[in-house]
Amino acid sequence: MRDGRYAIATQRLQRLLGIEPNFRLARLLYGQALALRSGAQLDSPLAHEDDPRLTELLAEYRQRSDELRALPTAGLVPSLLLKLSDEIGNVLVVDLGKGRAYLIDNNGSGQYVVRNLYAGIGRNGFGKRSAGDLRTPVGIYRVTGWMADDQLPTLYGAGALPLSYPNSWDRSLGRTGSGIWLHGVPTDTYVRGPRSSEGCVTFSNNDLLSLRSQLRVGSTPVILAEQLDWVPAAQLVAEREPLLKAIENWRRQGEITLSDLSLFAYPGENGLVVAQFVQNDASDNGASSAGRDQFWRHQDDGSWKIVRELNR
């Protein structure tokens, strides 16, 4: 449509609507393409932008088109992913500012974006602080289960993947609220608007069901970030080395062993990294192991200091 190829645009939109007949934005664009094809003079693919009925669809259009022009280059990874344990098969990272979610596979040869998805967030944006503020939280969470569509009102569509909000860091900061989920949309629509939930992250029903099959309950990290910085994976190797040395010094002093170590720069926090690992201890009563979340803060003198730790 931008190139004036209205016949081709009409054909492609027809095919799309044959697959997703409830895709409202596609239906609106189809009408625009037909009008342009007939010779109508319209200033943009979405005319009548001042019509309040189109406000949400216009926001979706801008979010989709802006993000398609700014997809990360192949070989780049989010800077938040300092180190992933081999036990983590994939990570879901959501750029809340852009309304885009990225499923990143983790294997022996590196980390790769395998899917990028449109995502809706809270009506009042992100940075949740309290119950009822209609904001999506910023932080690192895990899926705690699955709720099927027959357990939920139609608002949630194909189902829901509840998240572990509030986590220990949220609670330490006095953040409240609950019921933050990844969930679907009513069957009479394809997606919801960019900012239309009560704080949850919403996906098309097909995307949600696909994520359900790929996210492991209790283990796959779900990172909700204000924005993502994409960098070469090799850059993270150098950035994590000083912290790895600090963790190793701490481990030796405590005469303990660690396994399955992952490091995540904590979104929304300056100089905060959470180290997640399995801690193995030996005592007179026998050996024991536990999952740990250990928060390290980068100090002004360049050193690293533990500021919080707890069993996961």
What this model shows, in words?
With 312 residues, the protein is α+β, with helices and mostly antiparallel strands. The protein folds into 3 domains: 6-68, no CATH class; 76-230, L,D-transpeptidase catalytic domain-like (Beta Barrel), CATH 2.40.440.10; 232-311, no CATH class. Helices cover 25% and strands 32% of the residues. It contains 6 helices and 18 strands. The strands form 5 sheets. The chain has a 5-stranded antiparallel beta sheet with strand order 2-15-16-17-18, covered by helices on one side. A hairpin with a 5-residue loop joins strand 17 (286-298) and strand 18 (304-311). The relative contact order is 0.13. The model has no long low-confidence stretch (mean pLDDT 92).
Give the gist of this structure.
The chain has 312 residues and is an alpha+beta fold. The protein contains six helices and 18 strands. A five-stranded antiparallel beta sheet has the order 2-15-16-17-18, covered by helices on one side. The chain has a five-stranded mixed beta sheet with strand order 5-4-3-13-7, with helices on one face. It has a four-stranded mixed beta sheet with strand order 8-9-10-12, with helices on one face.
